[in-house]
């Protein structure tokens, strides 16, 4: 189970890889980035219960979520109760 503090902010990172070198190297790096992103998006969809298309939108760029949004999305299971 995953919990977050009430005032926390969570971020879904955009999957990234470094690109550089000769054109064939860049092509291979881009292909690997696309495969990795697809795999990560499928995992997010499976773990959160969100549609694959919605996950793709959220991972297109870094996506910040409040604790309530993260809970609604399915990234966390609850909000920690604190005295502060």
TrEMBL record:
Recorded GO CC terms: endopeptidase Clp complex; plastid stroma
GO biological process: protein quality control for misfolded or incompletely synthesized proteins
Pfam families per record: CLP_protease
Single GO molecular function: ATP-dependent peptidase activity
Gene3D superfamilies recorded: 2-enoyl-CoA Hydratase, Chain A, domain 1
Family the entry assigns: Belongs to the peptidase S14 family.
Protein name per UniProt: ATP-dependent Clp protease proteolytic subunit
Native source organism of the sequence: Rubroshorea leprosula
């Amino acid at each position: 189970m995953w919990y977050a503090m009430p005032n926390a902010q969570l971020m879904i990172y955009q999957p990234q890889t470094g690109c550089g070198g000769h054109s064939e190297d860049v092509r291979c790096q881009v292909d690997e980035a696309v495969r990795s992103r697809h795999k990560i998006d499928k995992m997010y969809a499976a773990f959160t219960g969100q549609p694959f298309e919605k996950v793709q939108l959220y991972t297109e760029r870094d996506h910040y979520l409040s604790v309530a949004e993260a809970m609604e999305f399915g990234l966390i299971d609850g909000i920690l109760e604190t005295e502060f």
